Each structure stands twice: as C-alpha cells, then as structure tokens.
C-alpha cells in the first residue's frame, strides 16, 4: 500500500482527498483543527451573521465512509523531503506521496509586533475574537461615562481593501448602523465610525473597471470611511498611525496581507519573498517529485504562463490535478515517477465580493456584474460550494431571516480569554 500524506484540510487538501481513491493507497489527512473551514464566509461569523457550525464541517464526518482515509488532528513541526518524513507533535509520518496544503497565515509586512494589537481573519478563533471585541466595545460604550472613551470604543478600523477587508467593512457598517440602532438606550450606534484603510489608489485593485469604483460608492453609502493611498506606519494599543495622522480605535482588524505557513521554512527548498514554496508546473517540489504543494502555500506558474492566485477555486483545481497525477501513477505498472508530468492549467472562474445587503461586485471573463444581480450570484455560488446539506440549509435560512427582518444572528459574547 502506498501512503499518501495530506497536510491541511482546506480547499486544496479536501479536493485532493475526495478525488483520490485507489485500492493500492491509504491516505492520512493531518490538520491542526478537526474541521474544514469555508473561509469566504468567515467575516459573517465575525459580524454575528452566521454561527461557527454554519461554515465548518468535521473532517471525520466528511470522510466517515472512506475506510482508506485516516484523520489526525495534530500540528506539523517540520517536513524532511529527503527522508520522506513529516514530524508531528506526537510522532512521525513516513510517506510515498506528500501533499502540502496548509495555506497561509496573517502577515504583517515585517512588523510582528503589530499582531498583539490587531485581529486577523484566517480561522474560527479569529472570527470569534473579532465578534467578541466588537460586541464588547459597544457594550462598554453603553456604560461609559466619558464621551471621548465611548467614541474610541465605537470606532473600528479595518486595514486592507481586498475582498476580505471590503466584505468585513460592509458587514460591520450594517451591524453598527442598522442592526444595533434599536439595541442600545444610552449611545447612538449611528455615531460609530467604520474606517477602511487601503494602501492602493482603489479598493479591490485587481477587479476590472468600473467594479472597484462601484464597490467604493456602495461602501460610502453604507457609511464606511475609506482612506485610499494610505499606508499604515504604526499600530499600538487602540491606535493606528497613517502618515502623520493618529487614529484611536477600540477594534483594529487586519486583512492587509498573508504569508505562507511557517512550516515551509523547514523544507530546505526554494521559497519566494512571502515564504511560499516554489514548485514545478505540475505542482511538485524541486528535486522531490513525490512531494507536492498546492493552494496559498505555493508559488506556481501554470501551463499558460499565468501566476496562479491564492484563492479557493485555484486551490481546489490544483488539488484535483495532483490527485489525478497520483492516481495515474498508482494505476501504472512502472515503479518510477515519470519525469514529464502534465502541467497544471488554471481556469479562472471569476471573482466576487459582497458589500452588504443586496450589493456585490463580480466578474468572470468579460462578464461584469454589480448591485443586486451580483449579490444573487454571490449567494448562489457560496451556497453551492458550502460543505454539507445541513450547512447549506442553515445558511440559507439565516440569510432569508436577516434579509426579511433586517436583523443579524444571535449576538452572544463569549470571553475566549477566560474560557
């Protein structure tokens, strides 16, 4: 039996494990959590629109009928491709094929000290931290006697104008200005400030015109203050410095950048400036054809000379491509790995971002959508790709309730620091 070790239960690792089935192979799927996370909807958990189970599914549940798949909830310490060995917290794994799909972590552009003053958005824990901080800030503002302190507590800064930042800012604006308006007696949530800071001259900078401008207009209509061509110089406790301007904020959310999972530093293979593994066109590591990397953790130029973006559809397609390569080699009577494998070719199905209720932007090829039509397309696509029937039904019912009643989900505060 050939042993295939898959590191990471995200979109890439999940797609590969689902596709790869062979009588002569067993698969070990390793992740430091026990669930697959649908990250595109993570911001809705952070803003109390959805619950954690709505956008996650236990890996053991997904593969409960696959006797050839074993799941391990462990942290990967290091990878040694020259020994075909993965070091875990509680043991070693030896492999015949390795797939590294551990994704990315929040990156602070050389300022790790900023991490303790902000919250990223890469995990369920991050989302719950944001939810707790935002809800707690407004609760404290309600009982605060000092108006200046209350103003700071009601100020939220989102750093980064990509899809995650835009969606987060829009959802926070709706939460503060529309959902909260009947909840408080002393403070006026309409006085809250939602500030989006972006270093480029337009948000969603890789979206084609005129979509970035329409997204900007939608955010401004929601009440979001957008600061373009503004680079953050310093982040301290409840303060963000942009140029010579110092802004006080009760909550600071970072969506500006990511870097590859730090386990790449243990490989001894070429990395790019963001720590991503430089792989061959078929997705394999240089000098180690039995090891692959896919998704956010790799830097890949595909068969068409296109740099593959770090988005969920790309990771899913790469997972399926590598699964088919391994499947073909397992079917072959040859024991040696072929030298000329088919290169991966990325098919861009388009990109979309939502900006609050009934507003979104999307493009696919020459098609460009905005407003209500793009929002309906966004809803349909995200429901389709959610894992599990239960998740789809739950999320759909949540969305229908929120749309018809103009309310968010249960805004429960759990103190994660003490739990």
Report on the structure:
It is a single chain. The chain has 419 residues and is an alpha/beta fold. It is 30% helix and 24% strand. The protein is built from 10 helices and 25 strands. It has helices at residues 11-19, 42-46, 59-62, 124-143, 147-153, 163-179, 211-222, 312-331, 372-385, 389-405, and strands at 2-7, 25-31, 35-37, 56-58, 69-73, 76-80, 85-88, 91-94, 97-100, 104-106, 155-159, 193-197, 225-227, 232-236, 239-242, 245-248, 251-254, 258-260, 277-278, 284-285, 288-293, 298-299, 351-354, 360-364, 367-370. The strands form 8 sheets. Strands 5-2-1-9-21-20 form a 6-stranded mixed sheet, with helices on one face. Helix 1 (11-19) packs parallel to helix 8 (312-331) and helix 4 (124-143) packs antiparallel against helix 5 (147-153). The longest helix is centred in the N-terminal third of the chain and has 20 residues, at 124-143. It is elongated, with a radius of gyration of 22 Å. It starts with a strand and ends in a 14-residue tail after the last helix.
């Amino acid at each position: 039996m050939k042993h295939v070790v898959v590191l990471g239960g995200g979109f890439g690792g999940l797609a590969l494990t689902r596709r790869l089935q062979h009588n002569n192979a067993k698969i070990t799927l390793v992740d430091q959590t026990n669930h697959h996370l649908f990250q595109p909807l993570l911001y809705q958990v952070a803003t109390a629109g959805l619950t954690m189970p709505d956008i996650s599914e236990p890996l053991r549940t997904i593969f409960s009928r696959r006797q050839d798949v074993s799941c391990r909830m462990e942290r990967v310490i290091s990878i040694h491709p020259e020994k075909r060995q993965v070091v875990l917290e509680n043991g070693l794994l030896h492999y015949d094929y390795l797939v590294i799909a551990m994704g990315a972590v929040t990156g602070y552009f050389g300022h790790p000290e900023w991490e303790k003053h902000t919250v990223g958005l890469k995990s369920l824990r991050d989302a719950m931290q944001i939810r707790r901080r935002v809800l707690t800030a407004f609760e404290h503002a309600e009982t605060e006697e000092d108006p200046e302190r209350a103003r700071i507590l009601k100020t939220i800064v989102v750093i980064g104008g990509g899809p995650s930042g835009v969606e987060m800012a829009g959802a926070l604006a709706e939460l503060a200005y529309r959902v909260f308006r009947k909840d408080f007696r002393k403070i006026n949530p309409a006085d809250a400030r939602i500030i989006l800071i972006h270093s480029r001259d337009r948000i969603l900078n890789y979206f084609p015109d005129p979509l970035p401008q329409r997204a900007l207009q939608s955010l401004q209509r929601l009440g979001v203050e957008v600061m373009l061509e503004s680079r953050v110089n310093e982040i301290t406790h409840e303060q963000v410095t942009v140029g010579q301007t110092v802004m006080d904020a009760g909550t600071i959310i970072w969506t500006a950048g990511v870097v590859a999972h730090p386990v790449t530093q243990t490989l001894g293979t070429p990395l790019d400036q963001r720590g991503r593994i430089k792989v061959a066109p078929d997705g394999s590591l240089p000098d180690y054809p039995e090891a692959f990397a896919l998704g956010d953790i790799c830097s890949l130029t595909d068969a068409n000379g296109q740099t593959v973006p770090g988005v969920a559809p790309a990771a899913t397609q790469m997972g399926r491509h590598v699964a088919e390569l391994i499947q073909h080699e397992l079917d072959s009577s040859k024991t040696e790995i072929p030298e000329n494998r088919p290169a991966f070719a990325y098919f861009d199905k388009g990109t979309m971002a939502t900006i609050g209720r009934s507003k979104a932007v999307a493009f696919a090829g020459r098609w460009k959508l905005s407003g209500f039509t793009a929002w309906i397309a966004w809803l349909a696509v995200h429901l389709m790709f959610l894992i599990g029937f239960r998740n789809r039904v739950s999320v759909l019912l949540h969305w229908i309730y929120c749309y018809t009643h103009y309310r968010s989900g249960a805004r429960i505060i759990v103190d994660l620091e003490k739990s």
